[in-house]
Request: fold
Amino acid sequence: MAETDTGDFPLKRHLGMTIRTIEPGHAEAGIDIGEHHLNPNGVAHGSVVFAMVDTAMGAAVMSLVPDGMACTTTDIHVRFARPVSSGRIVADTVVTKPGRTLMHIESRVTNDEGKLVATATGAFMVIPVPTPET
Reply:
């Protein structure tokens, strides 16, 4: 399984995120939790988990869209199950309903012991690749 060609965007570098497409419609993202991911209570900030889920969902959707098309998040709902303060977390993500203009996605975030950290559902809109004129 090779890392998805998502480019080297700043948030990916800052979070130390890896992204892989497992198969069309199925992707995962992972982060090794470090001190810079923690909130004042000493656990991973919810925005770290959200960013990882959003990125994994985008990768899963992009593995299905035709050339010349892109995607954008319309909504994501994250439900946190347990805090995590160290180790690796992984968002295993699948497109549950692919559509021409809207795709529904589910994600399960687990820690390095396989315990559930969060679940998420979302929808992404399929759009033409943005150009400077749009």
